[in-house]
Amino acid sequence: MKDLIDSVDLMLSPDHKDRLKAEYWQLHIRMNRLFDILQNWDNLEFKPKCGKDTLNMQYHYMKKYKEILAHRALLEGVDLDGAYE
User: What is the residue extent of each domain of the chain?
Assistant: First the structure.
């Protein structure tokens, strides 16, 4: 899954396991984009209105949230790998 739009079907699924997969992969995509911003901070084509420290803190908590989702998926028997990468 490379774009948020790819997760729409899973997000709209009546199956809570599909929605968990979508939530996990949406977060994964957003984290990758934020990571790119942080890595290219001095060469961005725009100037963020918040400081790099704020975005680093956001990334840190997103990472923790992703770990919690992965743990929940493990407990619920939800496979987050495979076709979703």
Answer: 4-84
